[in-house]
Specification:
606 residues, alpha+beta, 5-stranded mixed β-sheet, 23 helices
């Protein structure tokens, strides 16, 4: 608002200066000088001023007290501010397109010059009065020391005021807080400061946790009823199973060891080392004398399928004996026998089929020689050709086209080939390509798909084990740390569709495989020839490096399979390994393999 008033003052001051200059140039009288405000050194009074002073108007008295120099300085200062405002507005118009559409407020200089060139009229005097009133209003607003400074140094004060206003605009607004901690402005009104919403996941989780805690705990200023409700909700949703850490960390106290604790530990370690030394000495002496191998063999318990007790009388003797073996005939002094049960007839028992013999007879296939196979093929082809010729002769089938080739072209076609050889050659080549394509299509039709190939391979590997299962037991010195050999043993057994198990024990690893005769033949070649066991060196009982080995312990037939898919089992003790085989009712496999390992170890020591 102050800038607009100042602009009006400047325009009115310019108009007064122009009027005063024109009146002094034409040498007008006091009536024309009544409107000027200070062109000469001493201000002149007009009759209008006298009349107004007589009326006692305070506005005219204040306007009269200002000298022409002061008015000029004030007008120059106002004009400078107007120019600065214009520059600021022009900068804002360049930056903001909305301000560019606002029309500029100003008076053209030509109109002002034209208005001042006119002769003074009563209207000019009224304008002069209005100018004086505006100057008085400006003087009234600038009260206190600022007004005195303007009278003394108006130019310097104006520049300082402009600089202070610019600095005040550039400075940040002061933060004012009331008694309750709210942000207010200078007049005391509350200001709502926008809060920044967190964008990071951690900040969002922290905000949600804070809101949840505020909702669960509730405000402190709530009444007693709401506090009791909040406590009930907290008890309702409190899980006493979750252990909460105390807010204050408990100090750890010093815990002292009992006297003599470390002495006992040292004594125990010494006793343990002495016991190990004695055990090593005893084992070395036992190896030299052969007592250890005999002890191990004695510990191997043989399988006892039949009871040891013998019956008093067998079932076949009960038919001819009168009572029992203890009954004696008085006449002969021998065991009493029923004579009626003995005759000249011979009893032939019923012949039973062995369990491992197939129900249907197995016929061996007849293998022909190469010459016989060629002869048989030739006969079959000739019969098929004769049958085709009969169909052609009877009109049931169309005769085939002549089989043309480049070599027999002239012989088959004759004169036709001479007339247009290019056409005939193209026809022959087309026929040859057609025959080649038919041949390839027939081969592709007979070719097996990938599924059929895999099925055929599995069918060839699969064998009928309903009449009996072939079993092989292998003993390996060490198989625990050799991953490549373990992979070969397991993968080949799975590929051949064999079942079994691998027991890993120190100095005695037993491999049991079950399958058909063909499968056993392939697997036996793998274990005894294809895998080079001698390449690996293992630790013997005496600690020396010896070559690894694989031995076929036993092979035979069994009525059924005792294991599933082949798997590796590690046993730290011999008893656990035997219990595993006993669980599958084949503990004799382990007994055979382990007894051979014990004997082999004793021969190595000797």
């Amino acid at each position: 608002m102050s800038s607009i008033i100042t602009r009006k003052d400047a325009e009115s001051a310019d108009a007064d200066d122009l009027k005063s200059k024109s009146s002094s140039a034409n040498k007008r009288s006091a009536a024309g000088a009544g409107a000027d405000v200070g062109v000469d050194a001493a201000p002149k009074r007009s009759r209008f001023d006298v009349k107004d002073n007589k009326n006692g108007s305070p506005v005219d008295a204040m306007a009269a007290s200002l000298s022409s120099t002061q008015i000029k300085l004030m007008m120059a200062h106002a004009q400078r501010e107007i120019e600065e405002r214009k520059r600021a507005l022009s900068n804002l118009r360049d930056k903001d397109p909305l301000l560019a559409s606002v029309p500029q407020i100003g008076m053209p200089v030509a109109l002002a010059t034209q208005a001042l060139s006119k002769k003074p009229t009563p209207e000019d005097s009224e304008k002069a009065k209005k100018i004086a009133e505006l100057q008085a209003q400006i003087r009234a607003k600038l009260t206190g020391n600022l007004a005195n400074l303007i009278q003394q140094q108006p130019t310097a004060v104006a520049a300082a005021a402009a600089a202070a206003a610019q600095q005040q605009q550039e400075r940040p607004k002061p933060l004012i807080l009331d008694e309750e901690g709210r942000t207010v402005d200078k007049s005391g009104r509350t200001i709502n400061i926008p809060t920044v919403t967190p964008t990071l996941k951690a900040n969002i989780r922290a905000k949600k946790r804070e809101v949840f805690q505020r909702q669960t705990t509730g405000p402190e200023s709530s009444n007693s009823g709401s506090a009791s409700t909040g406590q009930d909700d907290a008890v309702k949703y409190f899980d006493d199973r979750i252990a909460l850490k105390p807010t204050v960390r408990n100090k750890r106290t010093l815990r002292f060891h009992e006297p003599g604790k470390f002495q006992q530990l040292a004594e125990r370690m010494r006793m343990k080392s002495q016991l190990e030394r004695l055990q090593n000495e005893i084992s070395q002496i036992a190896r030299k004398t052969g007592i250890s191998s005999a002890t191990k063999l004695a510990l191997i318990a043989p399988k006892q399928d039949m009871p040891d007790d013998v019956p008093a009388m067998e079932w076949w003797d009960s038919v001819i004996l009168s009572q029992d073996l203890q009954t004696v005939d008085e006449a002969s002094g021998k065991i009493s026998i029923r004579q009626t049960a003995i005759s000249n007839l011979i009893e032939h028992p019923t012949q039973m089929k062995p369990p491992n013999e197939p129900l249907k007879p197995v016929y061996l296939p007849v293998f022909l020689t190469k010459k016989e196979r060629k002869k048989l093929r030739r006969q079959n082809r000739r019969e098929a050709w004769k049958e085709e010729q009969e169909k052609i002769r009877l009109g049931l089938a169309a005769p085939p086209e002549p089989k043309l080739r480049i070599s027999n072209l002239m012989r088959v076609l004759g004169t036709d080939a001479v007339q247009d050889p290019t056409k005939i050659e193209a026809h022959v080549r087309e026929q040859m390509a057609k025959r080649q394509k038919a041949h390839e299509d027939a081969n592709n039709a007979r070719k097996l798909t990938s599924e059929q190939k895999s099925e055929k391979k599995q069918r060839k590997l699969k064998e009928d084990t309903s009449c009996g299962v072939h079993v092989s037991v292998y003993r390996i010195r060490d198989l625990q740390d050799n991953q490549s050999k373990k992979f070969k043993v397991e993968t080949n057994a799975k590929q051949l569709q064999m079942t079994g198990s691998v027991a890993l024990f120190r100095d005695c690893c037993v491999v049991v495989v079950e399958g058909g005769p063909k499968q056993q033949k392939k697997y036996r070649r793998l274990m005894l020839h294809r895998i080079k066991w001698e390449e690996d060196l293992v630790k013997g009982n005496d600690g020396q490096d010896v070559a690894n080995s694989c031995v076929l312990v036993w092979e035979g037939t069994s009525q059924r399979r005792h294991f599933g898919e082949i798997k590796f089992k590690i046993f730290p003790m011999e008893k656990m390994a035997r219990e595993f085989f006993q669980k599958h009712q084949v503990e004799h496999y382990w007994d055979l393999a382990y007894s051979g390992a014990v004997l082999e170890a004793s021969t190595d020591q000797q």
